[in-house]
Amino acid sequence: MAFWRTTSHSFPLLGLLSLLLLAVASTTSAAGIHLGVIRKPAPDVPVFREAPAFRNGETCGSDRIHVSMTLDANYLRGTMAAVLSILQHSTCPENVMFHFLCSRFEPEIHATIKSTFPYLNFRVYRFDANRVRGKISKSIRQALDQPLNYARIYLADIIPVEVKRVIYLDSDIVMVDDITKLWGVDLGDKVLAAPEYCHANFTRYFTDAFWSDQTLSSTFQGREPCYFNTGVMVVDVDKWRQGGYTQKVEDWMVVQKQNRIYHLGSLPPFLLVLAGNIKAIDHRWNQHGLGGDNIEGKCRSLHPGPISLLHWSGKGKPWLRLDSRKPCTVDHLWAPYDLYRSSKHTFDE
What we know:
Layout: H1 16-27, E1 65-71, H2 76-89, E2 96-102, H3 107-116, E3 121-126, H4 155-158, E4 165-169, E5 173-175, H5 179-183, E6 192-197, H6 208-212, H7 214-217, E7 227-228, E8 232-236, H8 237-243, H9 245-259, H10 267-274, E9 279-281, E10 309-311, H11 318-323, H12 331-334
Parallel strand pairs: 1-2, 1-4, 2-3, 6-9
Antiparallel strand pairs: 4-8, 5-10, 6-7, 6-8
């Protein structure tokens, strides 16, 4: 088993160029190690290079870090890049356990993960899309209406009961810091931790019909509702189960079907239930919005400050923009983690 050491750290934003150089340097530190290309298991499953195996810490215990992500053919390339980034920057990558949620079990995708990451600790779970089909309302973007986008609501019901805490991550992220730091967040008495944005215009996430109905809008009475992005969350799944939060989120989805109180997908019901009542963590853990808005996906710049996680939320995805040869500047920060066989942005063979 071949291992080598990399340095895992976060960094202040010293300019886009220095960030890009750091990402490229950390990824290409494997120079001289041959990375094989796995065989394509099925016509519709992308082909990926085999990822290197990392061992970064001198000593690692047996404590597991549980990470959950969704598996979707359209986002598989993003998932592979996200997993690589997490392992590369983790002090103890062998302690990270991945819980993948998919709409249907596809042996080809399972085999692809195993071949790309031979030493990965992971399990794949089927999410029953029928649980949400009748509850989903049309949003401003078709991708937001996919049943798998709602799987995070049912996470506590799907993963094993012995898992007490999980980090949920979207597939369009890359981690540039040690995930152990995020895992160690003190939730206190809260069920969920995430970066919180209290200066965002909260009213725009809901329709006039919602704000004009005193019964509905009064749900925020007694708390300061602040926006948070559900693509990066640390969740106490025990508290989630005990508090019946799945049902609480579902109840708002029923209201949405009847009254059309928001325009986005799975985010607003989370805000209705939890906004103003989460553990706020440093913004460095979700540099979101890099995919642009939900309609046009125009390029955006990085926000000032230190960065531990980059998130291409929004319509524009870095792999699509790179392939079209019309990338945004920030997409070059994603490229070093791309394991797609045809990629010219990652490891040399």
